[in-house]
Every structure is written in structure tokens, then in C-alpha cells.
């Protein structure tokens, strides 16, 4: 038994030596050309999304032997190459891959040295390529439905207002017509909520068209195929607070007095009106909570002739309606509600045919009650004066509670 075991041991040892000899021969064949060399790989590989294309980007390998890069995709069915122009890892290399279908791709990038040896692959996976499907899902940026626009009527400017975009909006073109009938285009940045349209021509249409990028640092910008129309921008409505100070309901006094008679705040008066309270007040009284008030001197002392209460302001071109509301009145009255160009009102005996007058309502004790509307049109920005020119006999009074300015 011992003799048999020794023979078996020698046999196994001989087989082992023979096997090692064959492996060494194979290893020598493998290393016959020297050590295996792999060119250096690229670093920090990424991409920039594009429209039916993409741009692959990376930092070059510092390996000076690298001569070019080979890029494969579609499971190696498609490929391209580019020369290596830098070996500085702080530089950025890139190549645009065009003519791609919309979808997701995986790319392999190989570094190739001057004798054709290849590095191991660097994978750039999940590369999104965008196109018509993505563009078809884009919408123009939404305008602010609650406050679509703000008006600067005096300057003729309009600020259009938009909501915050829910994607990466690079800008929105806003197309409008100015008062010279010139079509203008401005671009609202994606991080701004509104933009001013200077010298806007009211009654004309405003359209807008937005552009987006699918990802930060994208290669291409996508624009919505069609424009959208902004809500109609009009100046129609009450613009009293924009142009007229202390317009009534109630009217406020300018003096610090506490008695019935005072002077109206923000309105001009002539001396004929200031005929009450020892000529310290007039043109305003506490009646009706505060009103414009003309009255004969101390009620029965003397008539009040050619009395004026007026205010000047500058209006943009347009057609206006000015509503004047009468309160109490009695006695013998010659009353005129007047809109005139310039900064003053004509005297009562110079009203008929006066070229400065844009609109006038003339009334007496039989017709001055109620609300009267003065309509006038100015073709360009103009300073106008509105007010009352009144003559009264003794024991006569006339009151007004408010004025309202509307633009059509």
C-alpha cells in the first residue's frame, strides 16, 4: 500500500510540473510584444441637449499619445471620429452629433493613440435628443389673467404682465404697434414678470411667442410654433384718479379752518369766489360733506360775478367724457362748466365762440341740476383746464359734489 501511494504522488507531481510549463509558455506568448498599453480615457463626460442633435463634451486626457477620439452609438452601428486638439484636462472638448431621431441614446467614447491603440470605453448614457414632439408640447408663456396690463396713460405706455413660467423659458417675443404705425418687437426675459411697450397705439393687437430650452446649458432653443394674442388693451373707463386731484364726493378743503367756508384743495379760485367769512373763504363749504360752493356775497350783500374754480392737468390724445354732478342750487344763476386748452378759463363774457374751449355746458336755475357730460377730443397730448365760470345774483347759491373723467 505504501509503495502504491508513493508512485501516485510522483505521478501527480509530474503532471503539475508539466501543466505549469504549458501555462508559462502561454503567458510568454501573451507578453511577447511587451506590456499591454491602454491610452488614457476622457474625464467628466456629459452632453448638451439639442434639436435632433446632441453635443458630447468632456475634459481631455493628459495622455500626450492620444491622436483622436472615436464615438460609437446605436450599439456600434453608427460612429464618428474627431482629432484630439488638446491634452490639457482643464480644457473642454466636444463634438456635435447631427441627424439624430428624437429619443434617448447611449454613446461610447474611445481614446485612440497615434498607432491606433484604443482605450477602454467611457460611456455617456441617457443622452436626450429633442425634436418636434418636445416642441409640440410647448405653450406660450401665460399672461397674468388677474392684471394682464398696467397703463401709464400720460406717457402712452403699457406694461404687459406675465405669470412665472413652469419650465426653462429663455424669452418671450412681444409684438405690438406704436403710434407711428411701426410694428415693434421686444423680448421679455424668462426671469422678468413684465415688459413696457412704449408709445403703444391703443386699439391695436399685441401678440407674443415664447422660447424654451429643454435642459440647462442646452445646445438649442425651441420656439412655440404659433403666436398667442394678448387680451385687448384699452384705455376705456374711469381715469379720474389719474389726472384730477380732489375730484369730489367729497371735495376737501385746503385751509385749516373749521367753519363752514373754506378754499378747495388742489383747485384754483379767483378773488370773486372768495367772498364769504370776511373774504377769507369761498368756493368750498362743508355742505354735502364737502362741496364746490358758489354763493352771493354773504348771501344777500352783493352778487357774485365771473367767479371761477378750476384745475389744470395734462391728458394724452383721446376722446374723453367729463361728468359734472350738481348738488343744491337756488336763485338766479348763469353757470358754465368748461373744458379749455391751456392753464386758465376765459371770463364769462368771453366764452361764446372762444377757440380755446373744447367743451362747455351752459345752464341756469332751470337747467343746471343733475349730471352733465362734457365730451371732447384732443389729437395729441395736451394741457387742459376744467372748471366752473359762474355769475349769481343776490340770495343765490350753487353747489357741485363731484367730477368724473372717463376715456373712450
TrEMBL record:
InterPro entries assigned to the protein according to its UniProt record, in alphabetical order: DUF5013, FN3_dom, FN3_sf, Ig-like_fold
Gene3D superfamilies from the UniProt entry: Immunoglobulins
Residue ranges of domain DUF5013 in the record: 245-387
Annotated CDD domains: FN3
Transmembrane portions of the chain: none
Protein name: DUF5013 domain-containing protein
The organism of origin for this protein: Chitinophaga parva
Amino acid at each position: 500500500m505504501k509503495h502504491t501511494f508513493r508512485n501516485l504522488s510522483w505521478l501527480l507531481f509530474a503532471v503539475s510540473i508539466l501543466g505549469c510549463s504549458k501555462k508559462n509558455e502561454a503567458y510568454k506568448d501573451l507578453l511577447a510584444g511587451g506590456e499591454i498599453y491602454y491610452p488614457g480615457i476622457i474625464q467628466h463626460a456629459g452632453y448638451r441637449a439639442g434639436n435632433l442633435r446632441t453635443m458630447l463634451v468632456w475634459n481631455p486626457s493628459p495622455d500626450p499619445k492620444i491622436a483622436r477620439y472615436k464615438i460609437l452609438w446605436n450599439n456600434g452601428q453608427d460612429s464618428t471620429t474627431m482629432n484630439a486638439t488638446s491634452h490639457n484636462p482643464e480644457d473642454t472638448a466636444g463634438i456635435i452629433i447631427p441627424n439624430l431621431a428624437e429619443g434617448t441614446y447611449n454613446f461610447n467614447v474611445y481614446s485612440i493613440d497615434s498607432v491606433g491603440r484604443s482605450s477602454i470605453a467611457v460611456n455617456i448614457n441617457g443622452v436626450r435628443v429633442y425634436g418636434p414632439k418636445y416642441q409640440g408640447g410647448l405653450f406660450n408663456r401665460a399672461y397674468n389673467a388677474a392684471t394682464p396690463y398696467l397703463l401709464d396713460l400720460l406717457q402712452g405706455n403699457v406694461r404687459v404682465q406675465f405669470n412665472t413660467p413652469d419650465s426653462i423659458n429663455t424669452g418671450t417675443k412681444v409684438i405690438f404697434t406704436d403710434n407711428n404705425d411701426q410694428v415693434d418687437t421686444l423680448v421679455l426675459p424668462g426671469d422678468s414678470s413684465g415688459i413696457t411697450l412704449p408709445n403703444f397705439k391703443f386699439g391695436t393687437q399685441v401678440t407674443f411667442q415664447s422660447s424654451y430650452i429643454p435642459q440647462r446649458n442646452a445646445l438649442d432653443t425651441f420656439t412655440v410654433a404659433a403666436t398667442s394674442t394678448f387680451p385687448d388693451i384699452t384705455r376705456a373707463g374711469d381715469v379720474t384718479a389719474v389726472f384730477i386731484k380732489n375730484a369730489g364726493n367729497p371735495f376737501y378743503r385746503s385751509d385749516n379752518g373749521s367753519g363752514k367756508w373754506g378754499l378747495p384743495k388742489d383747485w384754483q379760485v379767483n378773488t370773486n369766489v372768495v367772498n364769504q367769512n370776511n373774504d377769507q373763504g369761498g368756493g368750498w363749504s362743508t355742505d354735502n360733506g364737502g362741496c364746490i360752493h358758489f354763493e352771493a356775497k354773504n348771501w344777500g350783500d352783493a352778487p357774485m360775478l365771473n367767479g371761477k374754480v378750476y384745475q389744470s392737468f395734462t391728458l394724452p390724445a383721446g376722446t374723453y367724457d367729463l361728468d359734472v354732478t350738481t348738488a343744491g342750487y337756488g336763485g338766479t344763476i348763469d353757470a358754465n362748466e368748461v373744458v379749455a386748452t391751456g392753464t386758465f378759463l376765459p371770463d364769462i363774457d368771453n366764452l361764446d365762440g372762444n377757440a380755446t374751449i373744447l367743451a362747455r355746458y351752459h345752464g341756469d336755475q332751470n337747467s343746471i341740476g343733475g349730471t352733465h357730460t362734457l365730451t371732447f377730443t384732443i389729437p395729441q397730448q395736451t394741457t387742459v383746464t376744467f372748471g366752473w365760470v359762474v355769475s349769481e345774483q343776490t340770495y343765490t347759491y350753487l353747489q357741485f359734489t363731484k367730477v368724473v373723467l372717463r376715456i373712450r
